[in-house]
Amino acid sequence: MWEEYLSPSSTQEAVDMLRSYNGEAQIIAGGTDLVLDLSKGTRKAKCLIDIGDIDELKKIDQDGDEIVIGAGVVFSRIISSKLIQEKAYVLAEAAATIGSPQIRNTGTVVGNVVSAQPAADAAVALFALDARAEIVGSDGKRIVPLGELYEGVGISKVDSTAEIVTGVRFKALGSNQGSAFMRLAQRKALALPVLNAAATVAIKGDKFYESLVVIAPVATRPFRSEDAENCLKGASIDKGTIEEAAEAAAGEANPRDSALRGSAEYRKKMAKVLVKRAIQKAVERAKE
Q1: pLDDT score, position 187
Q2: Can you list the domains of the chain with their CATH numbers?
Q3: How far is CA 6 from CA 33, 81, 95, 158, 278, in A?
Q4: Residue 188: which pLDDT band, with cuts at 50, 70 and 90?
Q5: CA pair distance 161, 156, nearest whole angstrom
Q6: What are phi and psi of 59, to 5 degrees?
Q7: How far apart are the C-alpha atoms of 233 and 46, rounded to whole Å?
Q8: By C-alpha distance, which of 276, 151, 126 is closest to 221?
Q9: What predicted TM-score, i.e. pTM, was given to this entire model?
């Protein structure tokens, strides 16, 4: 376990602390995953650097046409945020399904991404919003698509001993746009889902204009179905189009047989169901 626990007051101070420990310190915000890993010995750290109290990382702001969520923002704040409810409802919907009230009051949205679990609910919603991550290290700041942060299942490309994901950003949804999140899980389970799906759509009149369709866990990261999106683009908004897109998404999905989540065949069938429901609900909200 760790020997020291530090609480920097700024992002720069946190970066300086990381540098001074030469790889022996870890960033912690909510810690719902990290503390378990440290207790099991799957990760090690001499020092934990807690960024949860850095004011600049605890904000949910609109920056022009984008929404920015800091690394210290917990799930419960996402659920109650009027901005998120109005302009990124898929994320509020996903956050509400996560764990227990205790976890939602402690765990962070950014941590859901950094944990690199392909079925992490908030991460799936963020993929459907085409979100990007802001990363700060000793070499400065960079902004990258979320998909570039995943090395493998549970393995992030972000080195939390040297850099910090300070937040995520994505375009706010506007008029004639809607989003939705669907989840299949064991009854009363607080763990990761059997399957989840998210969709955002933009409509013009009676046709689809743009869309993003995401399913998980059917790959090593949340999986964006380009085949489903191509089915929707420019097509009429009707049951046949949505059915075709859901079928395409299920065809692209590549789940594996799992003792916990069910067979690959079952999950491919359910992927079609969840994607269909997510698109239908997103359309309803876009029309509202």
Answers
A1: 66
A2: 4-50 (3.30.43.10), 55-171 (3.30.465.10), 177-287 (3.30.390.50)
A3: 18, 29, 28, 20, 42
A4: low
A5: 12
A6: -105, 150
A7: 51
A8: 151
A9: 0.94
